[in-house]
């Protein structure tokens, strides 16, 4: 990103890198907070007109956007892995609750 790019693209790219870093560090709460701002900023890039950019800037913009898409793919993979872990945890909790209820009902039955 040595060539000059519109400020909004540079800011968006920096946010993208920060989100990728948060996903790598499993900082899920921070990632979720920042992701909303990232999505809003992403909508703002529609204001950038490729017609206003030089050929070199357009090529650089393509590279940056490609890298951002790759980063988003990696973030998505990490989020899917986290979701899988959370689903397993919820399933374990549900099983534990079910067993606990069964045990309690057996204990109550044997007392009477």
Describe the protein.
- This protein is an all-alpha fold.
- 82% of the residues lie in helices and 0% in strands.
- It has three helices and no strands.
- The longest helix has 57 residues, at 55-111.
- The N and C termini lie far apart (76 Å).
- The model has no long low-confidence stretch (mean pLDDT 86).
Averaging pLDDT over every residue, what do you get? 86
The termini sit apart by: 76 Å
Shape: rod-shaped
Topology as a string of helices (H) and strands (E): HHH
Break the fold down into its secondary structure elements and pairings:
Elements (H helix, E strand, L loop, with lengths): L6 H18 L3 H17 L10 H57 L1
Helix pairs in contact: 1-2, 1-3
Features of this protein?
single chain; mainly alpha; rod-shaped; 112 residues; 82% helix
Task: Give me a quick take on this structure.
Helix content is 82%, strand content 0%. By secondary structure, it is mostly helical.
